[in-house]
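Continuing the batch. This is chain 6 of the set; chains 1 through 5 are on the previous pages. Same settings as before, nothing changed between runs. Recording input and output for traceability.
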Amino acid sequence: MYKSLLALFSLLILVSCSEKKSTKNFVLNGNIKGLKNGTLYIQRIKDTLFVPIDTIVISGDSHFTSEFDIDSPEMLYLFLDRGVTNSLDNNVPFFAEKGTMNLETSLDFFTADVKITGSKNQALYDEYRKVMSRFIDQDLALIEKKFKAYKAKNMNEVTRIEEEQKNILKRKYLYTTNFAVNNGNHEVSPYVTLAEIYDINLKYLDTIQKSMTPKIAQSKYGKKLNEYIAERRKEGK
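Output for chain 6:
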């Protein structure tokens, strides 16, 4: 009995020692189904270029964990090195924030199958992209119609379609503005503003700026948006 208890106690010590807690403020647990061997890179955009933060070598097990510190929630990218260019088809964007996030996808449909949890900003961004994809689909359908109208030399139809495209663009800008204003307490608000509607009328940018909470205004993208708006004001645009 004594020996059994001693063995159990020793096992518990070994388990507790092996379960080391991360000292980093961000942890990404991932799984890429079907990936046996390869290299993954977690990247951020700096001065329009992808800059690697962490490198992950996959050898046999498709599961991985990456840990590092982030100062503020930001959009990062998981890049799968297929031996080709750093294209968007190999990059999965995810809105990282302090804590633990989970990312699952597949090798065959790397960007299409992705499911990301553990980030409120990511959840909001997923909602945003879902609506935006509808606008994109509508615009693509109009592009096809316009091409056919050009071939048929039906310029009246071309003009009508172009007006429809302008209306879709206006709706995209209006939706993004409303989304940013309604989510001024999350970092995704200044992010989508800078990424999608940076050239909108200054009065709308002012409205978005006023909707940001003090915490968001001091975040990575909040500061960038404030700097950008200040520059636009100087230029009077």
